[in-house]
Design a protein that fits this description.
Shape: elongated
Helix content: 10-25%
Largest sheet: 5 strands, antiparallel
Strand content: over 45%
Structural class: alpha+beta
Number of strands: 12
Order of helices and strands: HEEEEEEEEEEHEEH
Length: about 180
């Protein structure tokens, strides 16, 4: 009976030590990217370009600290923005919280390239911390919500504008066009 009691106390003390060992806190990653359709942009066409923010923690507040996006070599029109929502996505085999900051319709009449100016963002994120005491962890769970501020800079981006490929007479007739 005494051996069982000693074994039980030993197991409880080891379980308490393993619960009180705190795992290393993950650093919050915050970055921004410009994303567009994977199809090439041809002269005379337009496409939707999105500025997407990524973070390893949920967003609380995000502000753009630089001026608005500037596009050289073409035209741009800002799409109306509804309520910004965040969603969990997988990028490069890692989970991120993603939020579309803005969407633009861009295009160019000339062959060349569209150049997007860099933008700077400042974000505030939620961070949940576990209590040190194993009993508080068991009975109350994560209690404290910390706020962490991070800054990121979206690099300048270049989108090539290509010349539209020529079609043969057969392709024009198959698509329903008329040859003059």
């Amino acid at each position: 009976m005494l051996n069982r009691l000693h074994l039980l106390l030993l197991l409880l003390s080891l379980a308490g030590l393993s619960l009180s060992a705190r795992p290393p806190q993950d650093e919050i990653t915050f970055f921004a990217q410009i994303e567009h359709d994977n199809r090439p942009l041809y002269a005379g066409d337009s496409c939707v370009v999105s500025i997407v923010l990524y973070s390893t923690a949920p967003f609380r507040d995000v502000r753009c600290t630089s001026a608005s996006l500037k596009v050289r070599g073409g035209h741009a029109r800002l799409l109306p923005q509804g309520q910004r929502t965040q969603q969990r996505v997988v990028k490069d085999n890692r989970f991120y919280m993603a939020m579309v900051w803005q969407q633009w319709v861009v295009g160019s009449e000339d062959v060349g390239k569209l150049q997007f100016s860099p933008l700077q963002f400042e974000g505030e994120f939620s961070k949940v911390e576990m209590p040190d005491d194993p009993f508080d962890r068991f009975f109350y769970g994560p209690q404290e919500t910390g706020r962490v501020k991070r800054k990121c800079k979206m690099n300048a981006y270049t989108l090539p504008v290509l010349e539209r490929p020529k079609r043969s007479t057969r392709e024009i007739l198959q698509s329903g066009g008329q040859v003059a």
